[in-house]
Amino acid sequence: MNAICLVIDRLHAGFLGAYGNSWISTPAFDRLACESFVFDQALIDSPNLAPLYRGYWQGCHAMGPAEAAERRPSLAEALDDAGAHTALLTDERLVAEHAAAVDFDELIELDPPWEPQPAGDLESTHLAKCFAEAVSWLGRAEGPFLLWCHFGGLGTAWDAPAEFRGRYWEEGDPEPPEGAEVPDRLLAEDYDPDELLAAVQAYAGQVTLLDTCLGALDEDLAETGLKPQTLLVVTSPRGLPLGEHRRLGHADGALYGELVQVPLLIRMPGGLGAAARSQSLVGPADLWATLLDVWGTVDPPASPTGQSLVPLVREQGGLARDRVCLVGERGQRAIRTPAWYLRKAAEAELFAKPDDRWEVNDVADRCMEVVECLEDAIEQYAQAVQSGSTAELPPLDDVLREGLE
Asked: Measuring CA to CA, which residue among 238, 257, 208 is closest to residue 8?
């Protein structure tokens, strides 16, 4: 049993065909989705990498105390005890320096591009170099192993060759940007739509580059015989706003769907769960619990918030979760239920789910009772996480789970 976790930073779920995009070519992601179990409602619990990785690697929620996570065995430590060789490959300093990163048997750090420029060919791009390093490691790996790859990806440099972003340019469109810097700003109320279009097209080119790299990695897995015996996870630790809510890039870290709802595809060995999907609400700690379950670790440590996704993949039920909660910068909090998404910053905003996918229509002033109940639910969740477990939380009322009639 082997596992590869590809965590690609700033991958916007809305730009993948498996999540409804129809204008960007992503054949490798499309094939992977056909071979994988796809989670449509995967959300992060924080856009900040340090607390987020406490979920991935220690099964803890970002609202919980960091000291509690430090006392828990990490994913790498547990799999090492189960006989797996573990390796972390990353170009992100915050991930390499995470408290749980020291438990990996190998740490391979890649230099980020310090002065990014559009590359002359695919092989010279930063993403291609990251994937090449992963392929190189796999070529000398001896199983069983876990290879965890965190790549800055679409948030580090948009250095795809001009031909990639040019695929989405049409006559009359503004010229694609010449640089490779990732934009990061709030747009003015009267912003120039041509400016945004050029940025979106450049991002689309970067997604196409990522898709090409993913396809090459998958071909290598097939050629080397690793594919049938290797679990593959592809996800993102956070999306990237591209004009939604007038944010372009991370900007102020507002907890809207384009930032917090991420792709999650899990390809199981033997084709288990292939081409199936789930609308269940899932979070980072669930990946931690899933990998321990798949590996069959003896007496895995309980997670305060995470649950294994294997029963869902096996169609054995499980994960009937009625909420996930998020915490962000400057005191932001949010809660997602099957029927609602509440973002609480200076003011509360409420959106009906799943219909209002990207939070366009704020209905808070028409549903004040729902707002108040969800605010209370966030506080209850935070207190439960602080105490060590959410297992004893009472179920939400029907209106919070199912919406208004």
From this structure: 238
